[in-house]
Request: fold
Amino acid sequence: MSSAAKSVTFEGRFAMHRGGHLESPTLVYETWGKLNEARDNAILVFSGLSPSAHAASSEEDQSAGWWEDMIGSGLPLDTDRFYVIAVNSLGSCFGSTGPASVNVETGDLYRLSFPVLTLEDVAEAAYLVVRHLGIEQLESVVGCSMGGMSGLAYCVRHPGSTRSFVSISSATRALPFSIAVRSLQREMIRSDPKWRDGNYDRSDPPLVGQRLARKLGMITYRSAAEWEQRFGRERVTFQDDSGYKFKIDFSVESYLENQANKFSGAFDANCYLYLSRASDLFDLAEHGGSLQAGFKRLELERALVIGVETDILFPIHQQRELAEGLLATCADTKLVELDSIKGHDSFLVDMDAFRPVICDFFGT
Amino acid sequence: MSSAAKSVTFEGRFAMHRGGHLESPTLVYETWGKLNEARDNAILVFSGLSPSAHAASSEEDQSAGWWEDMIGSGLPLDTDRFYVIAVNSLGSCFGSTGPASVNVETGDLYRLSFPVLTLEDVAEAAYLVVRHLGIEQLESVVGCSMGGMSGLAYCVRHPGSTRSFVSISSATRALPFSIAVRSLQREMIRSDPKWRDGNYDRSDPPLVGQRLARKLGMITYRSAAEWEQRFGRERVTFQDDSGYKFKIDFSVESYLENQANKFSGAFDANCYLYLSRASDLFDLAEHGGSLQAGFKRLELERALVIGVETDILFPIHQQRELAEGLLATCADTKLVELDSIKGHDSFLVDMDAFRPVICDFFGT
Reply:
């Protein structure tokens, strides 16, 4: 836990959406800017699957955060005006209670005894943090990727608790292509003998499976068009074919290798499995019996949906579906389709495309 | 080897394109229809990575082949008119010499001592079969997927040896998205402890890795649009969440599981690695120093390029590139873009779309 991270433990039972409970869960969060006297200038940011609460640097922790170019003085989520909150997702492994935490009822690590996690639980835990901060109504809920679905869960379960909602490269629910990809990523980890049905040695985790899963992730987070421009058929170095036994040959393979090396080991394998499945399980239509009914439960004054044409994980037609659904009950809904070639990850790496859209929405 | 399969062993050294050699390799092939007296009615079919030479049924072998609806009396490759030849690729494991074969020079299985395999080698081996059958010039070379690149290798190395060329869902060379996918599939197999650096027990092969690789294959062979229509968010059965430990939940997961079960074990793991890498290595531009130079070496009277808009492995812009390149030296080149939603595999499963195009080309 970094020096900027704050921690709160909610004493008592936290009932999980699909059954079971957590005893006195802890949530870790960071904040930037100042809550005003009216307590109505807060923006809650929901992250994708893997980030911590460290979305941006601050005086207390000057290391760059995962959305460093988006949160700060003079930036789109302008901390001169807004009080920005990022919570490490329930079920994650950066301070918040998850499968890698100790179950205080047993004294053992949860591992697979952790109840089924849903994005409704992730949203509910964040809601507790917001209430803990004395905030009745948020200025906005902003969610990226999985976080967009967590944001929808937040809004649908607490109508009127935020004035606006911003969905970035997300959807009302996952479609089978994305489910297949994530299911295969989970199978890669579970297939690693070191996973040991979730009971892995924490000093010797299933890194082989985690590396494979990360590489598949990168294949779906970026776009074929970007890689064609960036790598083409470039080779890493001269290869002596005579001794060449399926090592890295092309630059794109080297890129994936570097990405896998950076990520693996930084994230707990069981936490990954739980959050990945939560992304598959979420469906706005479960709130009311249909998507239409789900949208009707939202009480938003304004909404913004941003999508990227080259995103294969949350494709552009899902952005349109989400915007149309929001529009039915929130007249001030805007859809922005960006033509970035960086795919799903554009919101992390193509700031020039995203910055003006977010600035326009918040008047920053 | 089925009863319809014929086998020929080419005595002597077969020099491999990237160095090394095979001693007296064997090639297995099947034929349908009759070679006419002029010996000029033969069509050579190059398959994708995994099929055997059994492309269609015959009197000798009545089991359905991998292109059953395409080859036969009254079908697009009409055996009443044409003599159709399919060769099990060099490097494969259905009778032709490959990494799973015995090296006659050592008496041991080749395994990873097999030289680096290229599609030029696959093409050259098929050329030997064609010459063995007493054919100087083919009516056509038809290649699907990887087979389209094998077909290009055949044409570029033996200009004038075929009058026409048909490329189906293939390309001049692989782009980084496809390379990344195949590289990851190979890594999945290599990461299975049972692979043992290629020295696996043949009765206990690296099936876990092979199953993962097959599932990733299926994700790229079909399309997100097809799965959205076919599976949506349908569940397999009622799941009791309390005992639910990352088993199959969605129908699309069950589908992948069935596909993996069908395929795994049927294909030798090392052969898969060699053929997969050969698909990455092929580049028409290596024949002459540029794509343009490569195309100039082809001497075709007619060409047909068929592609599918939802194909993510050999995307539609590669079909256009291939057709434009062919057109530069072969005025009678036709490009057909099909809007099938079945992705790369359309040529195997969407016959209604492909049949009329092939019929039109061959006047069948």
The first helix of chain A runs from residue 119 to 132. The longest strand of chain A covers residues 26-32. Chain A touches chain B through 57 residues (CB under 8 Å).
